[in-house]
């Protein structure tokens, strides 16, 4: 039996994951056995999200025919008691269903429902689509106000994670709005003791604590990692005010599940992509410290600024800090793959893979063969002229300079990382595992 909840919070308070923790406690008080707690992050570009666009699904054993109805009533009661209904954007939804695993498909939800989850994760769903599926499958459900929360609630009960991580969340009382009391040095210690099995609790380069929010919600802190044991170990080092409650969720955070492999010519606003192409201009630092360059589909990989083919602007915004220096070091002709969301005609960079580097060509005025003095520009498109003997030349001196970056992956710092974006430390571990699996299957290990 699965109970999905979404859209209970607002910018001024509450958190759907907190309501999920309350639901677990209430169900256990009524004799239900909780078997899984799922936190499903959905499309990070959804225009109506409050913070991280999270929906929750609580999985419990179903022992009698009345269990679904009882769980539904408990969930609805909690939503009505704790949701931020005064906020125009808060439109809660509750979905309760019973799904039997299909061993042949190795999937616990019908393919049609799984596709709905994937669409909610990578694209946009409508309330009408959600309601039609809820009616078709006969699920118990209730939506409040415009019922938008039914989208996330249905997506949460329909979620199947190809890859997953865990997060332990500690909460203060939901009505607390003041400054959280968490000892900063203990969070750095937790990261030191458990990295790379946990990540993004702190940002060492910028000396910033990442896992303690500054928003007026019940979350005291959250630790993300590979297993429940690792996040609990990291949590054991943290000294803070006494939490009201804690919970460990299984989640799709840190998995890159939101990214779609695509060509530049096919991208749509509000989706997140992996795009391959070539840098077609020198990166530019604009107002506010944001850095941009154009990525083009041209196949020549030329280093002379050729922009044939479809192009898209890629942006490294000021909050990405030192990552902008990597972007500034790119040159026309570099072959790269970028990852990020497409909004307002730009890719908001989350990470970048530099496949190959072009020669960094610098053009300088030539040295005069007569006077041995360096010439100066004779004017735009007029070549060069020696100030001493007036000798002219149309050919510049070409210097191939060394590059400040090397092929490989580069990412934004933890302070700028999105919930769904996979940290490179996780990617490195997963790449090693894939190589080992391949060797095992081929009999070479």
Automatic annotation (TrEMBL):
It catalyses: cytidine(34) in tRNA(Ile2) + agmatine + ATP + H2O = 2-agmatinylcytidine(34) in tRNA(Ile2) + AMP + 2 phosphate + 2 H(+). Residues 365-405 form the TiaS C-terminal zinc ribbon domain. Residues 148-258 form the TiaS FLD domain. One of its GO terms (molecular function) is ATP binding. Keywords: ATP-binding, Cytoplasm, Ligase, Nucleotide-binding, tRNA processing. InterPro entries: TiaS-like_TCKD, TiaS_FLD, tRNA_Ile2__agm2C_synt, Zn_ribbon_TiaS. GO terms for biological process: tRNA wobble cytosine modification. GO terms for cellular component: cytoplasm. Its EC number is 6.3.4.22. It is found in: Cytoplasm. Pfam families: TiaS_FLD, TiaS_TCKD, Zn_ribbon_TiaS. It comes from the Archaea. Residues 3-139 form the TiaS-like TCKD domain. HAMAP family: tRNA_Ile2_agm2C_synt. ATP-dependent agmatine transferase that catalyzes the formation of 2-agmatinylcytidine (agm2C) at the wobble position (C34) of tRNA(Ile2), converting the codon specificity from AUG to AUA. Belongs to the TiaS family. This is tRNA(Ile2) 2-agmatinylcytidine synthetase TiaS. The gene is tiaS.
């Amino acid at each position: 039996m699965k109970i999905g909840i979404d859209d209970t919070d607002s910018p001024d308070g509450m958190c759907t994951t907190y309501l999920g923790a309350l639901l677990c406690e209430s169900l256990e008080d009524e004799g239900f056995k909780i078997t899984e707690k799922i936190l499903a992050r959905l499309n990070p570009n959804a225009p109506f999200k409050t913070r991280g666009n999270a929906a929750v699904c609580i999985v419990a054993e179903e022992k009698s025919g009345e269990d679904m109805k009882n769980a539904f009533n408990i969930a609805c009661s909690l939503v009505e008691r704790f949701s931020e209904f005064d906020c125009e954007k808060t439109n809660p939804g509750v979905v309760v269903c019973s799904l039997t695993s299909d061993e042949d498909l190795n999937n616990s939800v019908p393919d049609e429902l799984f596709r709905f989850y994937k669409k909610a994760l990578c694209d946009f769903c409508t309330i009408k689509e959600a309601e039609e599926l809820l009616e078709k499958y006969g699920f118990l459900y209730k939506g409040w106000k415009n019922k938008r929360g039914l989208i996330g609630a249905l997506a949460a009960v329909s979620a199947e994670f190809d890859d997953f991580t865990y997060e332990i969340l500690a909460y203060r009382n939901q009505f607390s709005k003041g400054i959280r009391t968490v000892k900063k040095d203990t969070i750095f210690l937790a990261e030191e003791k458990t990295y790379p099995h946990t990540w993004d609790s702190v940002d060492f380069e910028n000396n910033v604590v990442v896992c303690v929010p500054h928003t007026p919600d019940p979350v005291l802190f959250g630790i993300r990692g590979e297993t429940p044991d690792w996040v609990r170990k990291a949590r054991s080092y943290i000294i803070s005010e006494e939490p009201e409650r804690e919970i460990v969720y299984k989640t799709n955070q840190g998995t890159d599940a939101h990214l779609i492999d695509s060509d530049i010519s096919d991208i749509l606003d509000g989706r997140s992509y992996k795009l391959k192409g070539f840098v077609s201009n020198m990166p530019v630092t604009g107002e506010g410290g944001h850095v941009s360059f154009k990525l083009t589909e041209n196949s020549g990989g030329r280093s002379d600024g050729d922009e044939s083919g479809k192009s898209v602007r890629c942006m490294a915004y000021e909050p990405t800090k030192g990552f902008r220096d990597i972007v500034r070091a790119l040159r026309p002709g570099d072959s790269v793959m970028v990852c990020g969301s497409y909004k307002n005609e730009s890719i908001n960079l989350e990470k970048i893979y530099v496949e190959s580097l072009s020669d960094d060509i610098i053009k300088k005025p030539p040295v005069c063969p007569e006077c041995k003095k360096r010439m100066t520009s004779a004017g735009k498109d007029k070549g060069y002229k020696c100030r001493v003997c007036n000798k002219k030349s149309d050919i510049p001196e070409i210097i191939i300079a060394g590059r400040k970056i090397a092929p490989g992956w580069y990412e934004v710092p933890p302070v700028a990382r999105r919930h769904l974006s996979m940290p490179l430390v996780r990617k490195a571990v997963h790449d090693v595992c894939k190589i080992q699996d391949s060797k095992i299957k081929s009999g070479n290990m």
